[in-house]
Amino acid sequence: MATFVDRVTLHLTAGNGGNGCVSVRREKFKPLAGPDGGNGGDGGDIVLVADPQVTTLLGYHRSPHRSSRNGQPGMGDMRSGVSGETLELPVPIGTVVHDEDGEVLADMTEPGMRVVVAPGGQGGLGNAALATTKRKAPGFALLGTPGWTGDVSLELKTIADVALVGFPSAGKSSLIAAISAAKPKIADYPFTTLTPNLGVVESGEVRFTVADVPGLIEGASEGKGLGLEFLRHVERCEALLHVIDCATLDPGRDPISDLDVILGELERYPVPEGQTPLLERPQLVALNKVDVPEAAELAEFVTAELEERGYRVFPISTASRKGLRELTFALAEVVEQARADRPAAPEQERIVLRPKAVDEKPFTVRAEGGEEHRFYRVRGAKPERWVVQTDFTNEEAIGYLADRLAKLGVEDGLFKAGAVAGSTVVIGGDGGMVFDWEPTLTSTAELITSARGTDARVGGSSRPTRNERREEYFERMDAKAAARAELEQERVSGLWADDDRDDED
Q1: Which of 94, 318, 323, 460 yields a CA-CA distance of 20 to 30 A from 286?
Q2: What is this structure's pTM?
């Protein structure tokens, strides 16, 4: 039996970026002709695409874990790694995408609409891209960043022009089968329809869609029966058609009470902000099964009262097709008027954009841990990404990271937060990089003169200043002068003479 799924949670893992390459070009008579390491490829994105051919989320219910390909690492001879392929996931039109916090990311209401829900990781730069006029032969490359990993929720809300609502076994499935080419399951027991059915109706020059919503009962807006599961499929409909069973044999039921119960459930159902409440939309009433003599008499009896309430009433029979033509023309009129009153849709895709504030800082520094175990946490997209891109087995790469952080102003932020030399600093959240902070005076990565792959600052050695070299020179000169004076004093005292060696010979 086919299963209808309109809610699902996807577990997504986008592709990781490839690492950059460290390579030096070698030519004849030029053993070191310069860096030629290529960049790593970007990881593949995961994209949702609104596809008219897809009607259910069943495939994702059975296979919720999806991942895209990783980017390939860079290679020598300036060859960049291949980027991972984008993974496209088709979803039905009308799918609403939520993040883990429940916020709406996108509303897939147009065919072909695309939204990136899991961006792939960024490929790392090779040493050729890191070379500058001062850093001519970098001995390091940047690592690729990991792709986005997390969950997104998909919720399908059927897009139709008219919604058929009513009690179970009121004849909604029979009606949609009679006025369209849809072939829903029809039986004479309640809750035969377990999934919303869509049918396309042509009336004159107007073409519109009709949705058969599973039967509602009293308390549906509170979760009873199937109503709460499928009432959201009514949200996007322009008009409502109340299908009322005039031939029911259930005691205590009549067309007026059935309509009042359905109206109460529709009134209590909350629609999203900005949408018209369900009861404020155009509504028509279809009194079904008038091919039964008793039902025809009952329909004639209640028509006047329903019309006094402001409803347009249509006695119909799906078995004999009585009144169906008049009903479809009336629905077409309502739909055409609703389309004319609908505001023009924007041309761009309706994707939620969250721009950054103009005065937003690239990072934050906060002291944590109390007085006894104080440490300083640095949070920000750039510092955290730079840490991920750094190869901590390479001292020159560590020095490059220190220079980047200093240029961004992280050290100034640590000073202002109260950090001193030797303070514990964490870059990132839980599991971030932890290190003891040693402030630098200037950004000198471009002036490093140590061997490739090393950074003199990491090893603890430092280049002496001009004053230190001058003092060291004067100390050596003073030591030599003192030694000569001591020798002269010994010679004057007669301890030795210049001709001692000659006498011995």
Answers
A1: 94
A2: 0.66
